[in-house]
């Protein structure tokens, strides 16, 4: 039998579970605390007490005082020594742990604050910030908001996180998360090979970095008071950011680090460079070749790269500038903070074993950092403002150009940004990166505004989705299955998961992420966050209770649930949504896949446009774009798009018209058949309208119809599906036409895609086009949408 070991520790209290506690929050001189006693902070958030690791499964201990000196029985107690030190003594009155004050405190009072900080003060300076000692200066494995991780440079005092040894053993384990200020300040998570990225800002947390003469540290704040967070170095060597809502108290992992393949230390071996957005992610630095090419081809990067042409200290050598990188590990380096970049270059050239140099600037003083030997753990950032420039020594013959950027005066702030931010890049930022990449590549003039897309941890999503079980599957979106689940906050969400091995899907995923993150409108389905862990690409949406429009209008029973008034509201809603996309949003966006199944309905049956996987952003001056891959849904595609891949806002108008006719008729355009002719729904509507019998198109389900309004809708629908894009009205006119019953409507011309095979009315469509249109439709059917 093991004797229970006791530790003194701090842990969070779940108020909803434990109820109100009457324990005091202070311990004064003369008092003591034994096993079973506790201190509870006034706001009832934190509790200080004794615990035995084996018996406390569901608690999260934020701080443990006597980590490596457990009490061996329950007779120890916490009290004050005559010097005013807070001490933990065992049965035989030996001090097991002490606050180890440097000065005597006459009248000490220990108080557990609502931040989780245990502080020691003079009774006379109670309620002041004049702490003689504080638990926050001695973190265990957890960083709470307000705690500093880093250094008091002057006195050489460090605060770092050290993991527990194992689940039941709080003694210091193998993994330490710390700020290394030797050379350049950088964060280190020892044990597993990781240096570099850490947390970035997101809607829940806000990290603050302070790099001063006397102090250098990381501290973070919670931006939303309804959340509690903690950063944990777990005993298997990961950093985990936990979030709990104050209501539910269940902890969820928001993300863990390392979180991408490039985070792994030296992922690409010596002299390799890791680029997370490339496939494969590893490459040799310029001028280098794989050491073992066969292994390299098998995606085994461990061997790294070696110089194609060795450097031999001749004058024929120069430097290649590599921008936006995380600089190599400082295995063998030399630092001088008093040098300019030019001097730095000269210094590197002078020494035959110098392989690269960089500006060491972190605090705005120019400086020089030289590397000798291999360059390990270089990683490229996609975003311009991250990372640093690295200058790699190469023979002239290898150089495309030699940079001479030393004369460029760099802004102190940019340098600060790059050095610090490079360390703190996370997948949240990765979302931004894709965004930037694509938007920039379009060359549009869109101003990048920070869109904070919360990043969800894969474990959280898997948990919320019940392990992506069949039961939680609710449908299929453009690029993969859609699941329903509940987040820890209790919120219902729909989660869209990119099917594996779908490259096309990846592009759609990126497009959708970028677009939805940018677009905020109550008509568009809301994106709550994303997850890009390992190979997973997941989008998290608000859940829409009432499925999608097609679920109702095409069903002979459910159609009764959507009366005309509702359908008309939905139509106007969609029209306004499209107006926003086409004209009102900061970007001009073409949806390209508008159809009944992409119109979701919320709890009050209001429409929400979804599935932006195919959407395109248009730069201001672009009118029409041609695409090689014709994708979309047959039956909703405009002829011009289906025939030759040209699309513009008018392609969406065509789809809208189609949708409008479907809403009115309750029939699908695709697969429509009529006993007496072979026209599509479009052709059918057109024929009836031409014969002044438009009302015959109307859905039999619509018992409450307002005939003139329905007729107007058919008319507007036909205007939208006219064959020539120029004839189709713009979204703004459509909204006006729908909203104003006295607005006059032009007479529609022949629609595109009548698809008749009878001789009737065929004069307007040439044989050639007819053939084309059939081809186009069957071709896109192959797309399987
Ligand atoms: C502080 O000292 C005063 C006077 O000695 C005493 O009454 C009071 O209880 C002390 N406060 C605490 C929190 O110990
Ligand atoms: C108390 O601690 C001292 C020193 O660590 C040790 O020698 C002694 O055996 C302990 N007493 C008990 C009862 O654990
Ligand atoms: C207590 O602090 C002093 C300096 O203030 C230090 O030298 C000593 O090692 C500390 N003792 C313990 C047990 O931490
Ligand atoms: C990077 O991590 C490795 C392995 O943990 C460690 O040896 C090295 O010192 C770290 N380097 C930097 C620059 O943090
Ligand atoms: C440590 O964190 C990682 C990443 O979140 C997780 O996979 C692992 O299971 C954790 N280890 C333990 C013992 O909880
Ligand atoms: C990877 O390549 C290295 C040499 O570059 C070799 O020693 C190692 O065995 C390879 N690993 C695997 C799994 O093939
Ligand atoms: C850096 O330069 C300043 C002014 O030129 C000088 O006072 C200082 O001693 C130098 N520091 C080092 C470490 O060389
Ligand atoms: C080059 O730099 C290394 C490391 O600082 C040093 O040991 C060596 O003496 C230098 N060689 C020359 C020729 O300056
Ligand atoms: C040094 O390398 C250059 C090519 O980079 C070559 O032309 C030259 O001959 C070499 N010199 C010596 C002394 O090896
Ligand atoms: C994604 O967006 C880009 C740029 O807007 C576009 O070129 C590309 O065709 C889109 N991809 C898909 C699958 O829609
Ligand atoms: C409705 O349309 C008529 C005719 O075009 C126009 O005179 C009137 O101002 C419009 N009403 C509104 C509210 O836009
Ligand atoms: C017609 C229909 O199914 N309406 C439902 C929409 O969603 C709300 C909220 O879940 C339900 O109460 C309605 O019955």
Automatic annotation (TrEMBL):
GO cellular component: plasma membrane
Top-level EC class: transferase
GO molecular function: ATP binding; protein serine/threonine kinase activity
SUPFAM superfamilies with a match to the protein in the record: alpha-D-mannose-specific plant lectins, Protein kinase-like (PK-like)
Catalytic reactions on record: L-threonyl-[protein] + ATP = O-phospho-L-threonyl-[protein] + ADP + H(+); L-seryl-[protein] + ATP = O-phospho-L-seryl-[protein] + ADP + H(+)
Secretion signal span: 1-23
Protein known as: Receptor-like serine/threonine-protein kinase
